[in-house]
Amino acid sequence: MIPRRTENGLKTTEISLQLIELLVEQNGATLGDVVDETGLARSTVHNHLQTLSQYGYVVRENNSYRVGLKLHHLGDFARKQNEVYDIAKRIVTDLADETELEVDFTVEENGRTVSLYDVTNYTDTPSFLVDGRLFHMHSTASGKSILAEYPTARVEEILDQWGLPAETSKTITTRAELFDDLDRTRERGYAINDEEAIEGLWAVSKVVKDQLGRVCGSLNVCGPTYLRTDERERAVVDQLEQQVTRFEQEITNSG
Known about the structure:
By secondary structure, the protein is of the alpha+beta class.
């Protein structure tokens, strides 16, 4: 990982944040591993890790560093600040029970989607989602369902910022294809992901709005492709639409 620079970014802050991301990606690493991966001077890496350790964002165990639980505390605090979090938690849990698949509620943040709350109700396959994980919007059902509600100028702005990177061989990688897909999403009322973000994953997603018609996020059902049949997908879409209706009614009642 070569440390990247953002426009007008503060270099020292960027390095610290990217070291945290690296420790997550590597599931922990030694000082030497971090130096080799980043190409930074050993003293620079050591100083950053020491500072992060002092503030609880990184923990040193023996000769290895890992992210600290303080990040869990901050992430949990952040998601609970979302106005519909409590409603989302109930709806996601109930829909996961109904479908016996993986269900999450996703929001858009800075042009990408992040899972706010996730429940998995099958045990023979690892969960595809992790609360807090960021995804590009063009490659997920959740992202496409939200993009379909945005004005073209906002969609273009997001694409200018993040591009259309190919996550799998099925990922949409041109703007023309994406806008065609968003048209189909609006026509059918929900978005579909057919192994576009993760190989072996299919998903359907429907946007959730508040009483003023503003997008709150998207409710999503996903699972491994071997569990998908046309009949099951139709049933899942029906269950998804019913729970979105309930979700929006609860938002109205809470206001």
